[in-house]
Design a protein that fits this description.
Blueprint: E1 3-4, H1 20-41, H2 50-63, E2 67-68, E3 81-84, E4 87-89, E5 104-109, E6 111-113, E7 116-117, E8 120-125, H3 131-149, H4 158-171, E9 174-175, E10 179-183, E11 190-194, E12 211-214, E13 217-219, E14 225-227, E15 234-236, E16 242-244, E17 247-252, E18 255-258
Antiparallel strand pairs: 1-10, 2-6, 3-5, 4-15, 5-8, 6-7, 9-13, 10-11, 10-12, 12-17, 13-16, 14-15, 17-18
Helix pairs in contact: 1-2, 3-4
Length: 262
């Protein structure tokens, strides 16, 4: 689940550094989120409703001994945040929203284990999609990998967004600016905010023990987004396709560790 990019990131705070025991809980949470996403990946197909996806995700997460991270967050009523085609993030599951051949759908989910959060997202192809959609998803995965590669001890926070922006530009796409990645741990949204576009150095240096949600959101057209009438879903202002990919990442002395990966 993305965070609004409304203010500057918080600078060094000891609370951002997780202990070994806290990291162990986040690893468990991340593995459960990844297992749930794997389950969802096997049932995304034309003809399934987004509410059915949500119900399966909730059963899976609870069955693995965790709680859905998003349900109840800011009074959000579902387990999954969705983004179909021009929807960027936070789309609401519905029994009336049926996936069709050619759609792309971003599925954003998280888990809570003993109070510790994970957060991840994948954009899936529904049946056969256009070449443009294929390129967008390939670029999104590449942007996520590039952002994670910058999650190094001593690196400036804004290097992550710059790496994402370079990939977006290479493919001829844009990177959303009004939403961002974020720290997480005991809460789903913690400092620092992680901008997804090109900015000069912030002065905030990454340290071992920090945990970040890196979540590039790329758009075929412009990067401008707007809130839909449901007051939850962000859509591209020009109505063009958008994708979202996300992992929870731990900063270590040995390099980035992806916690939401099987």
């Amino acid at each position: 689940m993305s965070k609004g990019n409304r203010r500057k990131p918080l600078f060094l705070n000891r609370g951002l550094i997780k202990s070994d025991n806290e990291i162990a809980m986040m690893r468990k949470s991340g593995k459960i989120a990844a297992r749930c996403m794997e389950t969802i990946s096997q049932i995304v197909k034309p003809g399934i409703s987004t509410l059915e996806l949500d119900e399966i995700a909730e059963r899976t997460i609870r069955g693995l001994g965790a709680l859905p991270a998003f349900k109840g967050q800011y009074d959000y009523p579902f387990t999954l945040c969705l983004g179909i085609n021009e929807e960027v993030v936070h789309g609401l599951p519905s029994k009336d929203r049926i996936l069709a051949d050619g759609d792309i759908i971003a599925i954003d989910l998280g888990a809570i284990v003993d109070g510790w959060y994970s957060d991840m997202a994948v954009t899936f192809r529904v049946g056969s999609v256009s070449d443009e959609a294929n390129d967008l998803l390939t670029a999104g995965q590449e942007a996520l990998a590039a952002g994670i590669d910058e999650c190094l001890v001593g690196q400036d926070l804004h290097a992550i967004g710059r790496a994402i922006a370079v990939v977006a530009k290479k493919w001829g796409f844009s990177s959303v600016r009004d939403l961002c990645g974020h720290g997480l741990g005991r809460k789903l949204h913690e400092e620092p905010q992680v901008p997804l576009y090109h900015l000069p150095d912030s002065g905030f240096k990454l340290k071992a023990g920090m945990t970040l949600a890196i979540e590039p959101m790329l758009c075929v057209g412009g990067y401008e987004v707007m809130l839909a009438d449901d007051n939850w879903t962000y859509v591209t202002r020009d109505g063009k396709l958008s994708s979202q990919f996300e992992h929870t990442v731990l900063i270590t002395e040995q390099g980035p560790e992806i916690l939401t990966k099987l």
